[in-house]
TrEMBL record:
<dbReference type="Pfam" id="PF16859">
    <property type="entry name" value="TetR_C_11"/>
</dbReference>
<dbReference type="InterPro" id="IPR050109">
    <property type="entry name" value="HTH-type_TetR-like_transc_reg"/>
</dbReference>
<keyword id="KW-0238">DNA-binding</keyword>
<dbReference type="InterPro" id="IPR009057">
    <property type="entry name" value="Homeodomain-like_sf"/>
</dbReference>
<dbReference type="GO" id="GO:0003700">
    <property type="term" value="F:DNA-binding transcription factor activity"/>
</dbReference>
<keyword id="KW-0805">Transcription regulation</keyword>
<dbReference type="InterPro" id="IPR001647">
    <property type="entry name" value="HTH_TetR"/>
</dbReference>
<feature type="DNA-binding region" description="H-T-H motif">
    <location>
        <begin position="34"/>
        <end position="53"/>
    </location>
</feature>
<feature type="domain" description="HTH tetR-type">
    <location>
        <begin position="11"/>
        <end position="71"/>
    </location>
</feature>
<dbReference type="InterPro" id="IPR011075">
    <property type="entry name" value="TetR_C"/>
</dbReference>
<keyword id="KW-0804">Transcription</keyword>
<dbReference type="Pfam" id="PF00440">
    <property type="entry name" value="TetR_N"/>
</dbReference>
<dbReference type="InterPro" id="IPR036271">
    <property type="entry name" value="Tet_transcr_reg_TetR-rel_C_sf"/>
</dbReference>
<dbReference type="GO" id="GO:0000976">
    <property type="term" value="F:transcription cis-regulatory region binding"/>
</dbReference>
<protein>
    <submittedName>
        <fullName>TetR/AcrR family transcriptional regulator</fullName>
    </submittedName>
</protein>
């Protein structure tokens, strides 16, 4: 997201732009969304847009942050319960109507715009990676992890199946079974000691 010098930013315009982009995606699909359409729906101007965002892709983290809260400090007392709490939050995101409507278009858009892809990775995936890293550190400190892994690889194990189900029409639903199965896979991947004892 871009920032500008001068007068203080009007947060109401931030909100109006994010809401307008969300409504446009829901109505028309991500590929049809334009900056002209967003600013018209928001009742503002293109200069106001560009003071806040470099592009439509730059808006994606702001749209998702406005729609989905992220628990900053998940601590349910055990590695399994922490991962379940984390994964339930991710399941809500990837099963959301907006995300299902927009995900394929977002991925196509980001594939040809490396800068916007980096904004998405840092703005959306970055906080989730930090949250997951903290979970794994706590699990290691509790003595629950046999094989410490790169948190990015564990995030792949957890989020990859949700992304697949969000993008591919007719794939099995994102439900409690998928959440538990992906967490079980992550526990196996990190060599959770509870599995070794069972």
């Amino acid at each position: 997201m871009t920032t500008g010098a001068g007068r203080p930013r009007d947060r109401r315009i931030d909100t109006a732009l994010v809401e307008a982009a969300t409504e446009s995606i829901m109505r028309d699909g991500f590929p049809a969304v334009t900056i002209d359409g967003i600013v018209r729906r928001a009742g503002t101007t293109k200069p106001a847009f560009y003071r806040r965002f470099a592009s439509i892709g730059d808006m994606i983290p702001a749209i998702l942050a406005a729609r989905f809260a992220l628990s900053a400090n998940i601590d349910e007392g055990s590695l399994r319960d922490d991962l379940l709490a984390f994964q339930r939050e991710q399941a809500l995101i990837f099963d959301d109507e907006l995300v299902r409507q927009a995900m394929a278009g977002w991925l196509a858009y980001l594939s040809s715009r490396r800068g916007d892809a980096e904004v998405f990775i840092s703005g959306f995936l970055g906080p989730r990676l930090e949250s997951l890293s903290a979970i794994l550190v706590r699990g290691d400190l509790r003595g629950e992890i046999e094989t410490p892994r790169d948190p990015r690889a564990v995030l792949d194990v957890l989020v990859g199946p949700l992304l697949l189900r969000s993008v591919v029409p007719g794939f099995e639903a994102i439900d409690g079974v998928v959440v538990e199965r992906t967490v079980e896979t992550a526990l196996v991947y990190v060599g959770a000691r509870e599995l070794a004892r069972s």
